[in-house]
Each structure stands twice: as structure tokens, then as C-alpha cells.
Specification:
By secondary structure, the protein is an alpha+beta fold. The protein contains 7 helices and 16 strands. 31% of the residues are buried.
Length: 294
């Protein structure tokens, strides 16, 4: 830990102490019913917009809540964590998958929107028996999430395990980790190029809103995504992923927004996205939901 001396050390301890004093209470994990699968939405609720400063300074008020915040992205611990800041308020960002760290670093310095699970960093955690083995207390309390590191004075007191992270497009240069977006490429160019693109749109279930002719559906598991380029069939993957599972037969789920990465295929005058990855994302600020007729 970097050394702090004199008055600077005292100020740092006093600033950090109020949040540390609110140590996370012990949590008993409730497993899914036999034959069921517990999702992040079921465990932590749907993502809700929140103020970064409030999440960073309110201690237990946001503990284990699924929140959406925005701020400037920076590096914290090389190869492991990043930091999201707004003014003097900061949150540690812990990638849900360690492999996502490199993609996220491409957005460092930009204003980003992050959805994730807020958790206080433990002051010191012991190893416990759980999940058929021995793990740190934070992993036993939240088996769906990566374990937390112990708190340090030079780190933010509150962490956010990242479920979604995207560029808000408000900086001088708009960049995004991963493939080009369908809105930037255009559906015809994407189909001709045969390269992977990202399509963000409103989930429309198994054509529940009659956006496309039912006869154009190629597989019983195909579902519709309403993109900036119009409705497309998504094939190859179900509308589920990290911590969520949408029901193609449930009209209530058509209020959700998804990001699909895959290749666009042209069959006659119809376009299909052969999905390689599906992620739940917040509704983009510039988009309005399309009505779904009864």
C-alpha cells in the first residue's frame, strides 16, 4: 500500500472510516430451487439508474443493489480493476469476467455508462467452507459474482461488479470496445462484409409485435430484435446471458433492450443476425421504445 504520512494520512483515514465502519452484514446465499437457475436479476433485482456519488458514499444503502451509473473511466489495479469517477466520487470496477478487462481499457478516459452490482470492499475477509470448497467470504456471500479484494486506503470503498459497460458518446472521440455497431455499418454493408457487428435494440420476443412475416422465421428458437436498421431475426442463441433470461413468449419482456454480437446473413430480402453473444443493456438515451400492438 502506498505510504501516507502526517496530516495527509489522517485525512485519508477519516474520509475512509465512515464507509468502512459500515461493514457488510453476513449474507446467507439462497440457492435456486431444485432444477432451477438463479439469475442476477433474481438475486439482485433489475438494473436501476443511480447517482455515482450516492452509491460511492452511502455505505450499505446500495449494498448488493443492481445499479446503472456513469462517469469517467480510469485504471486502478493493472490487469484486475478499473475506476469510475465523477468529481471526487469514485467506484472500483471489477470485471464480471477477467477477460473483459482488456476490452474495457480501450475506453479509458471516456465518459461511460456502467451497469453492475454494488458491494462494499471487506476490511478483512476470512476463508469459509461453501459451494463444495473453501472460498473468501465475499464469494460465499455472492456465488454468482467474482470474489472481492480486501479494502485499501488508496482504493474506493465501494466496488461495482461490471455487467455492462458502454461509451456514452459525449467525449471528443466516440470509441467502443469490440466490433463495429450495426447502426454505424448499415445492415446491407454488414451482410456483404460478413464481419461481426454489434446490434443494439428492443427485444420483440418470438415476433410478438408482428414486426416480420411469421413465414420468414427459419428456426423455432429464432426471435426478433428491433434495431436502428429495422427488425431482424436473431438466430443461433437464445435471449439470455450473464444474469438474465428473457422469455420470447412473454410480452412483458419486450420492454428490455439487448446487445447482440454476430454476423448479418441475407436470405432474399430478409436479414438475420447469427448471434455469437447476447447481453442485457440499458435503453440508449437517444432511442424511444417501439410500441407493440396487442
Amino acid at each position: 500500500m502506498p505510504a501516507l504520512s502526517g496530516a495527509r494520512s489522517a485525512v485519508a483515514v477519516l474520509a475512509f472510516a465512515p464507509v468502512l465502519a459500515q461493514a457488510p452484514p453476513p449474507v446467507r446465499f439462497t440457492p435456486a430451487p431444485r432444477g432451477g437457475t438463479l439469475t442476477l436479476d433474481a438475486a439482485y433485482g433489475p438494473a436501476e439508474p443511480a447517482d455515482l456519488e450516492m452509491v460511492a458514499t452511502s455505505g450499505l444503502s446500495y449494498q448488493r443493489h443492481h445499479v446503472i451509473v456513469h462517469g469517467k473511466l480510469g485504471l486502478l489495479e493493472a490487469g484486475r480493476s478499473l475506476v469510475l469517477s465523477e468529481g471526487t466520487a469514485r467506484l472500483m470496477l471489477i470485471p464480471f469476467n477477467t477477460g473483459d478487462y482488456v476490452d474495457y481499457t480501450r475506453l479509458v478516459g471516456l465518459d461511460v455508462e456502467v451497469g453492475g452490482i454494488a458491494r462494499l470492499l471487506p476490511e478483512r475477509q476470512a476463508t469459509q467452507r461453501c459451494l463444495g470448497g473453501s472460498y473468501p467470504e465475499s464469494k460465499c456471500a455472492d456465488p454468482l459474482l467474482p470474489e472481492l479484494p480486501n479494502a485499501r486506503l488508496d482504493w474506493p470503498a465501494v466496488s461495482l461488479t461490471v455487467i455492462t459497460l458502454s461509451d456514452r458518446g459525449t467525449g471528443p472521440s466516440r470509441r467502443r470496445a469490440g466490433p463495429a455497431s450495426l447502426s454505424d455499418t448499415g445492415i446491407e454493408a454488414a451482410a456483404a462484409a460478413g464481419k461481426t457487428v454489434r446490434a443494439i435494440g428492443q427485444f420483440r420476443g418470438a415476433n410478438l409485435c408482428r414486426d416480420l412475416p411469421d413465414a420468414s422465421r427459419r428456426d423455432a428458437a429464432d426471435w426478433v430484435l428491433m434495431t436502428s436498421e429495422g427488425p431482424v431475426w436473431v438466430t443461433g442463441r437464445r435471449p439470455e446471458g450473464k444474469g438474465f433470461r428473457l422469455d420470447p413468449a412473454d410480452r412483458a419482456d419486450t420492454s428490455r433492450w439487448l446487445e447482440v454480437s454476430g454476423r448479418v446473413e441475407a436470405v432474399g430480402d430478409k436479414r438475420y443476425v447469427r448471434a455469437a453473444r447476447v447481453a442485457l443493456v440499458p435503453k440508449p438515451a437517444e432511442n424511444e421504445p417501439a410500441p407493440c400492438p396487442p
